[in-house]
Design brief:
Elements lengths: L6 H7 L7 E2 L5 H4 L10 H10 E6 L4 E3 L7 E7 L1 E5 L6 E4 L3 E2 L2 H5 L6 E4 L3 E7 H10 L1 H21 L1
Antiparallel strand pairs: 1-2, 2-9, 3-8, 4-7, 4-9, 5-6, 5-8
Helix pairs in contact: 5-6
The chain binds adenosine-3',5'-cyclic-monophosphate (CMP).
Length: 159
């Protein structure tokens, strides 16, 4: 998926560059298209939207820096990013994918840098909101683990 179907509409809905914006219930339709959230009911999607912020990044912006402490979790709503680990080959993530979970899960520095590959729109969730969501939404935790397992397999294959 290179762009969520609602991505363009979502992009138009947010204010100017780097202006954080609480997402609110207008975003439920956009979030419903994100694979990570596919098992959530509309009520739960509304809750996710209420704790999330939309944020835009220009091409080449550094969204996350390897070695920094982790403060948030990101879902790519529109555009693509490059994940650049200190060693090993870079990966590309696209609309519907997530990143930034590792540093929050194991309370360690960011494992890789994440750079905007063109204009990017993300939704971000703070560390504390992410932790609460995982505790209260087992299906979301399960979906996250499924993706982490797939990423681990892919990383091992390319070593
Ligand atoms: P975190 O370590 O918090 O910050 C960098 C993020 O890049 C990391 O979380 C993951 O979300 C992502 N990342 C790191 N390694 C990989 C990989 N091999 N494949 C996909 N994403 C990755």
């Amino acid at each position: 998926m290179s762009q969520l179907a609602a991505g363009s509409a979502a992009r138009a809905a947010v204010p100017g560059p780097r202006e954080p914006d609480r997402m609110g219930r207008d975003w439920v339709g956009v979030l419903a298209e994100v694979p990570l959230f596919r098992s959530l009911s509309r009520r739960h999607l509304k809750h996710v939207a209420s704790v999330a912020r939309a944020r835009r990044y220009g091409a080449g912006s550094s969204i996350v820096r390897a070695g920094d402490p982790g403060s948030g979790f990101y879902v790519l709503i529109d555009g693509a990013v490059r994940v650049v680990p200190p060693t090993g080959r870079p990966r590309r993530l696209q609309a519907g994918d997530f990143f930034g979970e590792m540093a929050l899960l194991d309370d360690s520095p960011r494992s890789a840098s994440v750079v905007a590959d063109g204009e990017v729109l993300t939704m971000t969730i703070s560390r504390s909101a992410f932790s609460k969501l995982l505790k209260h939404e087992p299906s979301l935790a399960h979906e996250l683990l499924r993706t982490l397992a797939a990423r681990l397999r892919a990383a091992e294959k390319s070593d």
